[in-house]
Amino acid sequence: MPKLILDYIYEHEVARADQVYLTQPTGDGQVVDYTWRQMMDQARRMATHLKKQGFEPGARIAILSKNMAHFMMAELAIWMAGGTTVAIFPTESADTVKYVLEHSGASLLFVGKLDSWGQQKGGIPAGLPCIALPLSPKTDYPTWDSIVAKAEPMAGKPARGGDEIAVLMYTSGSTGTPKGVMHSFARATAASEGIVAYEEKENGAGFTYRVLSYLPLAHIFERAWVECAGFVMGRGHIFFAESLDTFVQDLQRARPTVFISVPRLWLKFQQGVFAKMPAKKLDRLLSIPILGKIVARKVLTQLGLNEVIMAGSGSAPIPPALIGWYRRLGLNLVEGYAMTEDFAFSHTTTRKLNALGHVGVPFPGVQRRLDEDGEILIKSPGTLVGYYKRPDLDAEVFTPDGYFRTGDLGELSPDGQLKLTGRKKELFKTGKGKYVAPAPIENLINECPMVELSLVSGVGQSAAYAIVVPTEGLRPKLADPAVRAEFTQEMADMLQRVNAHVADYEQLRMIVVAREPWSIDNGCLTPTMKIKRNRIEAAVGDQVEKWYSAKGPVVWA
After folding, report:
1. Are 495 and 553 a contacting pair, CB within 8 Å?
2. CA distances to 12, 86, 88, 100, 425 from 62, in Å
3. Is 70 exceeded by the pLDDT of residue 174?
4. Buried-exposed string 92-130: b where 16+ CB fall within 10 A, e elsewhere
5. Residue 507's Cα: distance from chain center in Å?
6. What is the dihedral sign for C-alpha 55, 57, 59, 65?
7. Burial group, residue 427, by CB count within 10 angstroms (0-12, 13-18, 19+)
8. What backbone torsions phi and psi does residue 184 show, to the nearest 5 degrees?
């Protein structure tokens, strides 16, 4: 029988019993370390408790929590007790929490570290059993600590079948209601093994593995690349972030050697650097042969990334210029392409194949082809079993020979590197009758250091338009007429630069400056910081005609 993820875990439990594996901040600069032995002892005790509840085999047990050590312990307990994990994004609204719990048929909910519990608790169905994890908001639920103090640790090596469902992963809902993606133990293990093999090939077998876990574990990127790959590798050390305010200190504590993030955060890190040193000055210093290396090292040290040997960006396209900027600092920043449906195991750049603007080549074992219309079709070891309760969707997304229709459009370079050119469902027609793919144009706009986010639209209009959100540090300064004028001029110049790089039918009529920033809280961003196009377009729908009647290339919404 092939090894599954639990088999790896049981091996590490013995071989690495006293190795510190998890480090959890508890406030005021204090942390608690958990060895493999301590982590598994708690998970085994909770598994005993769950088993006694008499849930059906494969029962869905949910976790609503920010990243923390006990999120992973709860998942281990669920697996050993015969259940399936359902993780809910910790920023979700009460309505979405309720939908996921009811759609999945959850038998129990673990409530962990949260910032918005007051708004979320109304989504918990009446009568659903709940357990409060350490660091959770104050509740009347039985606590993790009180339960594990009374329970005996589950003995032996409780096994799961390769075809059993390990996780029910709900998508972030950028285009509507979240979908439940089913991943089996066999496929989750295969993808995790592939991730570890890639990291060891790129960095050398036995490389020191330290990582800061802060992207939501409810999302496939962090779940696959940090948690599950860590369970397979075993020798690593996972640190957790305490809060946004302590993020720099958390990074300094972890001194990560592997660091993954999403484009919006990579941009924010860059903007933080520019807030201390103007971009032109930094560029000039980096151009000086010896001094440039010293300055680059200092910048990475201030970011807490000076010991990183591999950095990754995923979840959404990243502007090529931004990757180039980090590589110039000496950071080995690679871009990948994957999705919830393939357990984040599809494509990646490598040290040898890393052309800017491309997302690399398939991982070993991943098959790829382009359909006649350019849609990317993938067959990965981590391909989903199917969508929970949605056989209609299964019929739509799988080809007769088992390839998954990603919905993304792409093209291939001569050496096999993949370039993303848009999403099929995001294509729109202007009044000129030709389709426009917004993502590549947005990538050009997002290269501007004054822009945090952008959206390109213009269905049925004479030409497309773009909405931009100024960077966080710039927004308060726009009340100053001089700063506002400088920003307006930069947007006009950027419009010319963008239009010079796109086809005539893709050229933008104007740049619209958003009134308010887009955020998770106001519903314009998903929990993984992707823009919700439908939500934003609906919100500005009654203003569009007024924008087109305005004079000048820049319009203030």
Report:
1. yes
2. 26, 4, 7, 9, 31
3. no
4. bbeebbbbbbebbebbbbbbbbbeebeebbebbeeeeeb
5. 30
6. positive
7. middle
8. -85, 165
pLDDT value of position 529? 84
Residue 212 scores a pLDDT above 70 = yes
Report the alpha-carbon distance of residue 331 to residue 308 in Å, rounded.
Answer: 7
- Under a CB-based contact definition with an 8 Å cutoff, are residues 70 and 32 in contact? no
Using a CB cutoff of 8 Å and minimum separation of 24, what contacts does 33-38 make? 34/69, 36/12, 36/234, 37/13
**Cα–Cα dist 225/345, whole Å:** 9
The token pair at 226 is 């940090």
Residues present in the chain in total: 557
CA 45 vs CA 56, 82, 140, 150, 407: distances in Å: 19, 14, 21, 8, 43
Within 10 angstroms of residue 517's Cβ, the number of other Cβ atoms is 16
Compute the distance between CA of residue 542 and CA of residue 218 in angstroms, rounded to an integer.
Answer: 35
Instruction: Using DSSP, state whether 211 is helix, strand or coil.
Output: strand
Average pLDDT of span 155-166 = 97
Query: pLDDT, tens digit, for every residue of 499-518?
Result: 999 988 999 999 999 999 99
Of the candidates 261, 193, 270, the one whose C-alpha atom is nearest the C-alpha of residue 228 is: 193
* Cα diameter, the chain: 74
275: left (phi over 0), alpha (psi -120 to 50) or beta: alpha
What global pTM score does this model have?
0.88
Distance (Å, whole) CA 511 – CA 161: 54
Phi, psi of 268 (to 5 degrees): -65, -40
